[in-house]
Amino acid sequence: MGPRQIPCSSCAVRNRSVCGALSDDEIARLNAIAHFKHFGAGSVILLDHDEPGYFANVVTGVVKLTKTLGDGRQQIVGLQFPSDFLGRPFRTRSPYFAEAASDVTLCTFERGQFERIVKETPGIERRLFEHTLDELDAAQEWMVLLGRKTAGEKVASFLLMVAKRSSQEGCAAAASLDLVKLELALSRSEIADYLGLTIETVSRQITSLKRRGVIVLEGTRTVVIPDIVKLERLAEQMAG
Amino acid sequence: MGPRQIPCSSCAVRNRSVCGALSDDEIARLNAIAHFKHFGAGSVILLDHDEPGYFANVVTGVVKLTKTLGDGRQQIVGLQFPSDFLGRPFRTRSPYFAEAASDVTLCTFERGQFERIVKETPGIERRLFEHTLDELDAAQEWMVLLGRKTAGEKVASFLLMVAKRSSQEGCAAAASLDLVKLELALSRSEIADYLGLTIETVSRQITSLKRRGVIVLEGTRTVVIPDIVKLERLAEQMAG
DNA sequence: CGAGAGGTTGAATGTACTCAAGCTGGGTGG
DNA sequence: CCACCCAGCTTGAGTACATTCAACCTCTCG
User: Fold this and answer.
1) Nearest CA of chain A to the CA of B160: how many Å?
2) Which of A68, A146, B9, B210 has the most CB atoms around it within 10 Å of its CB?
């Protein structure tokens, strides 16, 4: 948990994270308080209703944000990929439970120090604001999925979303759109909690996509998408 | 559409809106560019994918924010009550369709002028940020409802949310919690679009609540809640 | 080789949807 | 003043989609 292992200049998420578009001086100040932290798949990052000790950029891996009802029903309300920012500025309590969906590396900033720097550097606050707006857009987009899409459309939309976020990581290399290959960070049960479905329904829909040749499975977590346009059509109108 | 008809000092939403906690100077600058606009129930406030000409505080009435799928399926992704802020700062295109659910009064700020003032007064940007965080919280809370709650729980949760937001308006007077009376701004069809249900299901659930004495209807849009605690229980576990 | 977690598949069930008819209240015109 | 109309809402019957319950498969790990 020592100081960051790599300089910001060679950080994989430097440009897309809140650190993007900051001046050298601003970066330097953040760098001074940054510490890398590693979390094994399944480990808890942030407790519900807890006061988080730090903010963080996701550097590698996927973090899932979960809300739970009194009787145990769960809903994943957000997935964070590399370059996403973890933590609510100006809020003392976390509204969700954060857990490492895969092995995760975070670039953390101790709460008090971070808030002090933010107060003095308006550029950072602006970046945080933009990230929050992105999160809001994603949440409202997902509301449409949860409220109005069929199980088939939900699963197709989920695969598309993962494909898009994953291809961002490897720069624009995978932007060719043909023959996308992706690794699912989530189990079937987690996918179900993200889509508002049950495990069995998710499994059946994935099988159905496989049978129709829309996707090819290698094992249970590696998905190849031969024709992403076909999948896109299925994400909005399952009939097509 | 002239300049604001009332001074900020006597504005009904002054304290809770983005104008709250601003200095006299900051308020004065906003006031200088503020214009009231009225919208009849059902009229369009903002087109999907459009570049909005202004930002605004909701002063009276309710604004609904809608997203639509290719085949016409709709989902309301947000409801804005008095003191809520309309418009995405730093974004040029609106991600949703905004419509007056009831008669609405907005306190508008012309886009360019507003952005100039925001740039010069960090206090305002901070307030906008806080409002965006509230919106994100609400969206994620609603994701749980859409993904994991039953029809009965959804309708109960909806009534509770309206009760809470409405009682805020009349100060804390209605905070007594006993015998809450509220006016629904939304039609059954709009409630359905907010809850991810059909008209018929919403109607049946409301009827069921009525039969069980949890609510009393006066006409179709006025709801009396004799025992709000009972409704709260139904919002999380319909069995209870 | 056995155990167990994660995943798939099958059959039966149930919740919410669809389709359809009927009701209610406000507004209009005869 | 009443009859009529229409939109919004309610109610009913049948259906479909996703869920539940259960069995089985498959891989990994000890």
Assistant:
1) 16
2) A146
Q: Which residue of B has its CA nearest to A233?
A: B70
The pLDDT tens digits of the residues spanning B134-166 come to 999 999 999 999 999 999 999 999 999 999 999
Indicate if CB(B217) is under 7 A from strand D.
yes
Question: What Å value separates CA A6 and C1' C18?
Answer: 59
pLDDT digits (tens, 9 = 90+) for B98-113: 999 999 999 999 999 9
- Assign B214 a pLDDT band (cuts: 50, 70, 90): very high
pLDDT confidence of residue A177: 61
Do the beta carbons of residue A30 and residue A118 sit within 8 Å? Answer: no
Q: DSSP letters of A98-139?
A: EEESS-EEEEEEEHHHHHHHHHH-HHHHHHHHHHHHHHHHHH
Contacts of B68-74 with C-beta under 8 Å, sequence gap 24+, read B68/B97, B69/A144, B69/A148, B69/A149, B69/A236, B69/A237, B70/A236, B70/A237, B71/A236, B71/A237, B73/A148, B74/A148, B74/B193
Inter-chain touch B236–A122, beta carbons under 8 Å:
no
pLDDT tens digit sequence for B161-206: 999 999 876 555 545 567 899 999 999 999 999 999 999 999 999 9
Interface touch A196/B146, C-beta < 8 Å:
yes
Chain B 140-199, CB below 8 Å of chain A: which residues? 140-144, 146-149, 193, 195-196
Q: Which of residues 16-55 of B touch A (CB under 8 A)?
A: none
Q: What is the pLDDT of residue B19?
A: 93
State the Cα–Cα distance between residues A174 and A180, nearest whole angstrom: 7
Q: Cα distance from A193 to chain B (closest Cα, Å)?
A: 8
Whether the beta carbon of B149 falls within 7 A of nucleic chain D: the reply is no
pTM of the model: 0.95
Taken in order of first residue, the domains within chain A and their CATH numbers are 4-143 (2.60.120.10), 150-237 (1.10.10.10)
